[in-house]
Design a protein that fits this description.
2 copies of one chain form a homodimer. In chain A, 68% of the residues lie in helices and 0% in strands. By secondary structure, chain A is mainly alpha-helical. Chain A has 2 domains: 59 residues, Orthogonal Bundle (Arc Repressor Mutant, subunit A); 157 residues, Tetracycline Repressor, domain 2. Chains A and B meet through helix 2, helix 8 and helix 10 of A and helix 2, helix 8 and helix 10 of B. Chain A binds a DNA duplex through helix 2 and helix 4.
Chain lengths: 223, 223
DNA sequence: GTCTATAAGCCGATAGAC
DNA sequence: GTCTATCGGCTTATAGAC
């Protein structure tokens, strides 16, 4: 949809395919052994290259993680920041967020679980993504607090609840294998489970689902 | 309580204190930077030692992680294996397990979150603990299936549910800061949340809580 | 128990040919 | 674009003095 960034995309088809293969394999290896536990040699071998050839496509090992982090965090952060200012019940908006994030992670061409492990984000070089992750967490906590105010959610500690949600989102995707990850219905499965744990009135779940899905559909069109 | 293992404990008080300090600092560093991201130099410095002095107390860097993994997995695994064969509703037994595990992790003198990151358990040297973790996961899945049979739990995919529970257990503890980690009520907080998400009848939660806590008290006495 | 000195290996990244 | 050759730095672990 965007017309910009030409100089990079222009370079041949083969280079772009290799670059993509590097990202995919890096994601798998980071998930299996962590960022620090993965050597650039391992990545190169998995991508069918010699180790130094990586550095034609990426300036550094960190640059690879950077691109994966961007894919992992940019859209969910934007989506959550919009949800905070949307009208409607907070429960439905939280439902929309969880569905969106789970689908985003599960349908990703890259395995994004590894880059959220280690203390990767505590390294100075990844400060940018640490801040993005913190902002996303804040949006989720805001949604939860809004649910306390409008009475749709149980008055549980927003920080603890946000940590639980993040833990679920990452761990449901992890190690579940491609077939199950892609299985449709996972986003609703996860959102249902979490909302049952948070709703002040369990019987309101069906209406929350309807309102949440409608909101999701609406926000996704003009993303 | 045990009378065995003398030769190790007998060596002076100072050595034992240093050994303990190494474990505590290792846990913190593994949590912050991951196992592979933490150098033995960092651990030694944090413990007030020179790097080679570590190897008087531990045969290798892995031996440190080994001890933390033993602390993290041994008791929960044993506890879960007993719960599987206990009588009573599966929901109550799952409640007991979640309370136990959360309290175990939260009251630990060591930060145990780091050793469950990276692909630490995928390394051949940690095969023993990989198997222990897999066994623990199987016990949890069995509990969930038992809940399908006795009708106390919703018929949700046991593998997905087990992944969600594991994700919550690890992430609620992580990065929450000591004061909140030790705050009493956390085990019940987590168990309540998960059970609300899984119970086939939301109104049965109070009785599940009572039965679960009773079971927890019972099994803890003759541990 | 803790130290200094040091070995042996792996790491990320660069230089330059093709 | 990908290769070979290679560098400097950092890593875990050992040897041996105190």
């Amino acid at each position: 949809m965007t017309v910009v960034q030409k100089s990079k995309v222009t370079r041949g088809q083969k280079g772009e395919q290799t670059r993509e293969r590097i990202l995919v394999k890096s994601g798998e290896l980071f998930a299996a052994k962590g960022f620090f536990g993965t050597a650039t040699r391992d990545i190169a071998t998995a991508a069918g290259l010699q180790q130094p050839s990586l550095f034609f496509h990426f300036a550094s090992k960190q640059a690879i993680a950077d691109e994966l982090l961007a894919y992992s965090l940019s859209r969910p952060k934007t989506f959550a920041s919009r949800l905070v200012e949307e009208p409607g019940s907070a429960a439905a908006r939280l439902y929309a967020y969880i569905s969106f994030d789970t689908e985003h992670l599960a349908s990703s061409p890259y395995d994004l679980t590894g880059i959220h492990q280690d203390g990767l984000l505590s390294m100075p070089d990844f400060r940018k993504w640490k801040l993005a992750g913190d902002a996303l967490a804040q949006h989720i906590r805001t949604l939860i607090r809004q649910g306390h105010v409008d009475g749709s959610l149980l008055p549980l500690d927003p920080i603890l609840v946000q940590h639980m949600i993040s833990g679920i989102n990452l761990n449901t995707i992890r190690r579940v294998g491609d077939k199950q990850r892609r299985k449709s219905g996972l986003p609703e499965f996860v959102a249902d489970f979490i909302l049952r744990g948070l709703l002040s009135s369990p019987r309101s779940l069906p209406s929350v689902q309807i309102e949440g899905r409608e909101l999701l559909r609406l926000l996704k069109t003009d993303e």
